[in-house]
Specification:
mainly alpha
Length: 111
């Protein structure tokens, strides 16, 4: 399960980076109705990617053994997990996303 969380987290991270690109193909979600909207593309999906990657790294910390390596890997995993939780909850709220979370092409469109 550790490897599944890492692989899915990394793939979801790649997908969320693709959604942030400014190409027309990566902006298919703008025309869709339903669960995939701006909050999903810029907060929920990247948050889930960070969450899964962080959980996978935390599980790998148990395999890291004892000492400094354990604490370094566990700290990295914990930071990614907490960041993923925050982003996911930001995406699940119904309010507007903060400007720092939106890509530049999206902020320019609102001006």
């Amino acid at each position: 399960m550790v490897y599944v969380a890492l692989v899915v987290g990394i793939l979801a991270g790649g997908g969320s980076l693709w959604l942030r690109r400014g190409s027309p193909a990566s902006r298919w979600w703008e025309r869709s109705t339903g669960i995939v909207d701006e909050r999903f593309a810029f907060a929920t999906f990247p948050g889930l990617a960070l969450l899964l990657t962080g959980v996978g790294i935390l599980a790998l910390a148990g395999l890291a053994g004892q000492g400094v390596l354990l604490w370094v890997v566990a700290t990295i995993g914990a930071v990614l997990t907490l960041g993923g939780l925050v982003l996911t909850f930001m995406g699940l709220r119904r309010s507007r996303l903060p400007g720092w979370l939106l890509p530049e092409w999206r902020r320019d469109r609102d001006r």
